[in-house]
Each structure stands twice: as C-alpha cells, then as structure tokens.
Amino acid sequence: MTPHISVVVPMYNEQDVLPLFVQRLRPVLDGLGVAYEVVAVDDGSADQTPVLLQRFLREWPQLRVVRLRANSGHQAAISAGLSNARGDWIATIDADLQDPPEVLGEMLTVGEAQQADVVYGVRTDRSTDSAFKRSTARGFYTLMRAIGGSGLRMDAGDFRLMSRATVDAVNALPEHHRVLRLVIPTLGFPEAEVGYRRDHRAAGTSKYPLHKMLKLTLDSVTGFSLAPLRLATWFGMGGFVLAAALLAYAVISKIAGNPISGWTSTVVIVAGFAALQLLCLGILGEYVGRIYATQQARPTYYVAYDSLLAAPPERRPVADEPAAPARATADVPGPRG
User: Fold this and answer.
1) pLDDT, position 177
2) pTM of the predicted model as reported, rounded to 2 decimal places
3) Is 70 exceeded by the pLDDT of residue 66?
C-alpha cells in the first residue's frame, strides 16, 4: 500500500534541532495507526545535517532523505518534497519545532472528517515571537489581502496538510519562485483550519533573517498580484492633478502681482517625481525579470540523492508500487512543472 500521509520537512543547517525534531515527530506518526513516510529535504546543508539524516535513516524505515545539490531556498525545498511525496495526504512542517508535530493528527482528523483538501495550521498565539516579527507578519498578511488575496488566512504559514489532488495541482503549476502560502488559497479547494500556539525555536538559529523576509515579500507581491504595476497609472494621474494645481496657483499669483520665488519647491517637486519614476521602473523591472526567468525555464533545484531510489527494492518502504523517478526540474513550465 502507498503511504496514507507523507510529511515533507525542508531542512537547512538544522544539526542542533534535528534530534529533538525526530524525537517528537516519530511517536506522533507511529501513533496515527496508518502507513506514512517522512520526506526530509536537505536543502544543501553545510553542517552535520546530512550525517544525522543518514544515521536516522538506518533506524527509521519510514524516513526518506532527498538531498538537493545546492541550497535552493525554503520554498524550492518544499516544492521538491511535494514533487516526490507519495501519500494520499501530504503535510509540510519546518524542523525548528515552532510548529508542533503533535497537531498533525488533529489536522488529519479534521481533513478527513470535513472532506477538506487543505487544512491550515493557524497561529492563534504568537506571544513567543518578538514584537518586530509579529508586526511585520501582520503587515505582510494585511498587504497581501489588500492587493487581492482575500482567501489568504491570517497567521497561516507553511504548516499545512493537503490532499493528493491539491498537491498534484500545485505540482502542475508552471510558476517560478512561487510562494506556496499564497498559491494554494488561489486554487479554491475546500479548506479548514486548526489553531495552535507557536513555540520558540527549539535549537539552532533562524533561517529567515531580515533580507530573506524582504525577498519573500517581494516574490509574494510580484508573483501574486498586478496591483503594483498600476502604481504608475495612479502616480501619473496624481502628478497631473498636482501640476494643474501648481499651474493655477502660478497664474493667479502672476495676476495678483505676487512674485513667485519657488526655486526650492521646484527642486523638491522635480526630485520627487524623478523618484516616483524610478520606483515605477523598478516595479516594472521586477515583473520583466520574472518573465525572463520563466522564459529561461531553469530548474529551481536539482536532486542529488533520494534514499528511496538508492535503497534496494526489498528494503523500500513501499514495495508494490514503483517509485516515481526523482524530478530535478520541478517548477519548470509545461509537463516538467
């Protein structure tokens, strides 16, 4: 039989937290009473994460290690796991233990009971996050909902459970640099949610510093909505209204005999409009860059090793169904997406 649930875990330099994560995840999955697999995606780790995964691989038959040739990013690692997962249900969870593995059983129960294709893990308590993290996260979700993501759930990250139909639909998408927390709600599949308290990172350091958060926001905005492109139109209309008002003021002042010095204000206005023009060009450049990257059709990751394919057939967890070959060209347009 095929796994009833696959758990995709992207990992990058998680040697400190990995033993704790396995210690908590394995009893949860063993207690579900269903066939399962854990797809650990090593996103080009430079520490002892690959060594620890091989050690756990010898002790945990349901563990499957997919190693990428180079660090490709969090979203690409999740996409690699989704492309290789074989379960009827597929969950995604980070290894830092901020999202508790114990919630997976409840998510599976809710998904089956409500016949939902997607079950989101929603952070109902984020008191363990810093004030800066909470405020920036709230601003991110507010912004994305404002520019058209009405289906986006507040405080729902990449901790979710999806049906096989949902994952197949995601794998078929041709997008590059996709942000899954925004893409999945646009599918419109039946949804449900499970609330949980977000914990502190159990060990190690965060893999999402400020510059990566900014890049994620930029990819989210430019890959999700055309609203930024309309800024140029609105700026142009606003500039026309301002110019008309200044012209009327100048004419009236001239008729009234009042001199107009205005050198400083002129420089400020010209500099302001120049800045707006550069901003519009920058936004346009982001979209052109995404089109260029799509036309190049370069893979977002390459799979270097898959323990399921490397193991002899008699030792593979699922023996009666041939495993799909590892795909190194996920997120590429057409049938390779």
Assistant:
1) 72
2) 0.71
3) yes
Do 93 and 14 contact (CB within 8 A), yes or no?
no
What is the mean pLDDT of the segment spanning 306-311?
Answer: 83
From residue 120, alpha-carbon distances to 57, 108, 194 in Å are 29, 11, 6
Q: Are 231 and 283 in contact (CB under 8 A)?
A: yes
Instruction: Convert the pLDDT of each residue in 94-140 to its tens digit.
Output: 999 999 999 999 999 999 999 999 999 988 877 766 776 777 767 76
- Under the banding of pLDDT at 50, 70 and 90, the label for residue 331 is very low
Strand partners, 278: none
The 3-state secondary structure of the chain reads: CCCCEEEEEEECCCCCCHHHHHHHHHHHHHCCCCCEEEEEEECCCCCCHHHHHHHHHHHCCCEEEEEECCCCCHHHHHHHHHHHCCCCEEEECCCCCCCCHHHHHHHHHHHHHHCCCEEEEEEEECCCCCHHHHHHHHHHHHHHHHCCCCCCCCCEEEEEEEEHHHHHHHHCCCCCCCCHHHHHHHCCCCEEEEEEECCCCCCCCCCCCHHHHHHHHHHHHHHHCCHHHHHHHHHHHHHHHHHHHHHHHHHHHHHHCCCCCCHHHHHHHHHHHHHHHHHHHHHHHHHHHHHHHHHHCCCCCCEEEEHHHHCCHHHCCCCCCCCCCCCCCCCCCHHHC
Range 254-258 average pLDDT: 71
Task: Give the percent of the chain with pLDDT over 70.
Answer: 66
Q: For residue 313, how many C-alpha atoms fall within 13 Å in the half-sphere facing its CB?
A: 5
DSSP structure class, residue 334: G
Q: Give the C-alpha separation, 95 to 292, whole Å.
A: 34
